[in-house]
Amino acid sequence: MAGQVAQATTEGDGAKPTAVDPFEKSEGIPKGYAKRANADKVPCPALLSLYNNGDLKPEQDGSVDMKELDQALSSMGLGSTARGALLNVADGTDEVPESFNLFNLRDSNIDHAGSTGIRDPKVDPDKLDKFLSFGENGRLYADNLAKAGAHFSEIDPGFKGTVIETLELSALLQVFGREDPERDGDRYFTNDDIKGLWIDGKYPEDWKARPADDVGLLEIGGVGAEMGATRFWDAITTPIKNFFNSIFG
Ligand code: HEM
Q1: What domains can be seen in the chain, in order of their start residue?
Q2: Residue 44 alpha carbon to ligand 1 centre in Å
């Protein structure tokens, strides 16, 4: 199917992030899903999924203004502090103030070590199986993601990249993960969820965005710290835990 680029709209102009209805576009697999033009140029599974679902609306050349990005991140349930941090990061990826280019993130200053390699340096579905092999019974919880992350950071080492990757995986899990009532609400992905997010840019089936502002930096950092602890337990447990705690504790 030919892709189409969603055009920026004026919808939501002047609306406060809290006025965005996070459920509006996220009932199951939203009707707006389509594999969009240049989707293969997007290295990030979260941005890819927002884009393919029509919840992130770049211009045809890929540029996205910060208001649009803020609204898209808000529709995922991310709180204002987490959004503010991400907006800053995104704004720094090119020279144009108050915007970033969705199709030029590869090789930008936030391209980092330690990623799964499934979408960077190119989309490579063959790497999916390795990632999924860290799951158990078709599910990946935070500790499974941590083990996967440890593997990828061994292949492509770098301390900063490893920390960022941990936080990204943690954020993705808190935003899109399913709650397991038998594990105290711990979140997990199924294999299909991971394939959907990373390869197809689809939200997990039946996903409903968490309420506006529900996902805070502390939660992301807290789970990231647990993942860091799992990941580095044998080697450098204490410094890593202290590092995370000094930021998020
Ligand atoms: C301002 C918004 C964002 C930007 C500009 C951005 C950018 C990126 C980039 C460039 C990568 C590729 C890194 C690499 O492979 O070296 C990436 C990966 C990733 N991002 Fe994002 N991202 C954003 C928001 C998010 C959010 C909100 C989440 C989670 C909810 C997220 C989750 C991830 C994950 C899990 C990866 C790792 C992918 C992998 O290892 O295969 N990102 N992101």
Answers
A1: 22-248 (1.10.489.10)
A2: 4
